[in-house]
């Protein structure tokens, strides 16, 4: 479904991505691992169209989409849950969800069944929610766009353990449903447990990758790259 070849991206004069190759099959889950500042979010922002690559190619279903702007990428079926959540604090929970909705399997009722906490706070403003509830809202909003690929950037960062467990439960359910996912999270053990494959970025390059089950058996080597 997604093919990335020889991708280079700059922030001004700063060369961040340095020839990244990546493939994601439809219905599979891919983990993106690496220390802070190694290029994970830059890769996602390039994929989403917020940054234009300076070299390389992005393909979606065999179609060249290199340099497409975010709204065109979203229409292809990319759902993005950004680091920091990015919900609209001046809109209610219901408004945050409905404003992003497109016809499809993910209805308002289905999102509320997936996140019962949101059903109890439909009239609350986004700024009135806890951090965990805001994260649930961000995921629910992305699902309402009917994504073919759901990208989650640090979905559990800074959340209480019970909320973290709830987020991973939902991620597991989404994976079991056949929704393709791209996960970035500091908890590399959890990422490996909830993905089919994973890659490690270091200074903008893929330095390690393979089946998640196999990488779980190479934790000492993996820990060296992740600095843990």
Q: How is this structure best described in words?
A:
By secondary structure, the protein is α/β, with parallel strands linked by helices. Helices cover 35% and strands 27% of the residues. The chain contains ten helices and ten strands. It has a six-stranded mixed β-sheet with strand order 6-7-8-3-9-10, sandwiched between helices. Strands 2-1-4-5 form a four-stranded antiparallel β-sheet, covered by helices on one side. β7, α7 and β8 form a beta-alpha-beta unit. The longest helix has 16 residues.
Main sheet: which strands, in order across?
6-7-8-3-9-10
Number of E strands: 10
What is the makeup of the main sheet?
6 strands, mixed
Level of helix content? Answer: 25-40%
> What's the helix count?
10
The percent range for strand residues is 25-35%
* Uncertain residue segments: none
Structural class: alpha/beta
**Order of helix and strand elements from N to C terminus:** EEEHEEHEHHHHEHEHEEHH
Taken from the alpha-carbon principal axes, the silhouette is globular
Mean pLDDT: 94
How far apart lie the N and C ends?
Answer: 32 Å
Q: Report the C-alpha radius of gyration, rounded.
A: 17 Å
